[in-house]
Amino acid sequence: MTVDTRELRRCLGHFATGVTVVTCDAGGAPHGATVNAFSAVSLNPPLVLVSLDRRSKVCAHLDGAPFTVNVLAEPQDELALHFAGKPMAGEIGWRYPDPRLAPELAGALATISCTPWRAYDGGDHVLYLGRVEHFAITEQDPLVFYLGGFRHLGPIYETVPWLESGDCPSTPWFVASR
Fold it and tell me: Which residues contact 137 (CB under 8 A, 6 or more apart)?
């Protein structure tokens, strides 16, 4: 079966994601790219994953280098567009809390600073796993991406009780695979 890549991209766009900017040091200057392919991987050891187009400029700087995942807040759509290739007029607020790690974006909802763990071939992308060395959060709403555009969250109606899930190993009714 041949997959129509344009239709596949449209289908995948139905999965709402947060918006991140992955930042790194590019020869002494901060650099970044807007990325929505980000995921938590493991709590022990603490690992996250970002997937980057291997042709991107930021991908050339991540081989064996620290990176920071900056989760953007609701009002940061202009910043997301800037790192996607549409330059913004204002200044970018960079922070350097730890000289061993990559720069962070000021005002982000959350920052997750990582040292390199592994990199894997992902077809036209490279999958970078980073070991979390430092993280910080703020109390804001996230910037959300859905169907090719930025969205905002509505009101919270109910919290999801994940710890009561039948798939959670800590619940008494959890059944391990045999």
Answer: 109, 110
Residue 178 lies in a domain: no
In a domain, 24, yes or no: yes
| 62: enclosing H helix or E strand | helix 57-62
* CATH label of the domain that carries residue 97: 2.30.110.10
Q: Which two tokens stand for residue 42?
A: 């493991």
User: What's residue 155's pLDDT?
Assistant: 74
pLDDT of residue 169: 63
What's the pLDDT at 90? 85
Structural domain harbouring 35: 5-164
Query: Any idea how long the chain is?
Result: 178
pTM: 0.84
> By the 8 A CB rule, do 17 and 144 touch?
yes
pLDDT along the chain (178 residues), means of 10: 86 84 93 92 96 90 95 93 90 92 96 97 95 96 88 72 60 56
With respect to residue 14, please indicate whether it lies within any of the assigned structural domains: yes
Structural domain count, the chain: 1
Residue owning tokens 């947060």: 18
27: region left, alpha or beta (phi > 0 left; psi from -120 to 50 alpha): left
